[in-house]
TrEMBL record:
<feature type="domain" description="TtsA-like Glycoside hydrolase family 108">
    <location>
        <begin position="9"/>
        <end position="91"/>
    </location>
</feature>
<protein>
    <submittedName>
        <fullName>Peptidoglycan binding protein</fullName>
    </submittedName>
</protein>
<dbReference type="InterPro" id="IPR023346">
    <property type="entry name" value="Lysozyme-like_dom_sf"/>
</dbReference>
<feature type="domain" description="Peptidoglycan binding">
    <location>
        <begin position="98"/>
        <end position="176"/>
    </location>
</feature>
<dbReference type="Pfam" id="PF09374">
    <property type="entry name" value="PG_binding_3"/>
</dbReference>
<dbReference type="InterPro" id="IPR018537">
    <property type="entry name" value="Peptidoglycan-bd_3"/>
</dbReference>
<dbReference type="InterPro" id="IPR008565">
    <property type="entry name" value="TtsA-like_GH18_dom"/>
</dbReference>
<dbReference type="Pfam" id="PF05838">
    <property type="entry name" value="Glyco_hydro_108"/>
</dbReference>
């Protein structure tokens, strides 16, 4: 399974360099990092000049360690990779919410583990439910959970385009750029 360094490297290659697309509400980005995210991380320069290693550090800190996805990685690396990808693109709370919804839907009416609150944070209840899924369903359970997460992510992309036609500029890339990248 890929390390966080491998995941970041794949992400940086896919996101590319500086972009200032007129349909992107996030404004100018570099290596997929929005100006707001760069500023929150302490980078005050022009987005064109955001260093690659600064982008990598932001991804590692903000989208891996602070989110708790590193703790998910210890239990289910493919799930952690998917959460990282979704968290970067949609926000860590959205990715974690998808995980919690899917775990609740897969618990067979709480026979395998109790429902978990939708805190949208990686907390003890979420980690316990994930651990139970892996114990009860094994590798196949992780694969099914991965499919559920991808389905929720894909559905969200379509919803975003339906709600704001300018997002149609990005849907193809959002979907195509994620096929098998992180959990082959």
């Amino acid at each position: 399974m890929a390390s966080i360094d491998d995941l970041i490297e794949m992400l940086l290659r896919r996101e590319g360099g500086y972009i200032d697309h007129p349909d992107d509400r996030g404004g100018p980005t570099n290596f997929g990092i929005t100006q707001a995210t760069a500023r929150a991380a302490g980078f005050g320069g022009a987005m064109r000049e955001l260093p690659r290693n600064t982008a990598a550090d932001i991804y590692r800190k903000r989208y891996w360690h602070e989110t708790g996805f590193d703790r998910v990685n210890a239990l289910a690396p493919r799930i952690a990779a998917e959460l990282f990808d979704t968290g970067v693109n949609m926000g860590p709370a959205v990715a974690t919410g998808f995980l919690q919804r899917a775990l609740n839907a897969l618990n067979r009416r709480e026979r395998d583990w109790p429902d978990i609150p939708g805190s949208r944070r990686i907390d003890t209840a979420t980690l316990s439910a994930l651990k139970a899924l892996v114990a009860v369903r094994g590798k196949a359970g992780e694969t099914v959970l991965l499919r559920a997460l991808e389905a929720l992510q894909g559905a969200r992309y379509i919803e975003l385009a339906e709600a704001r036609p300018a997002n149609e500029s990005f849907v193809y890339g959002w979907l195509a750029g994620r096929i098998g990248d992180f959990h082959a």
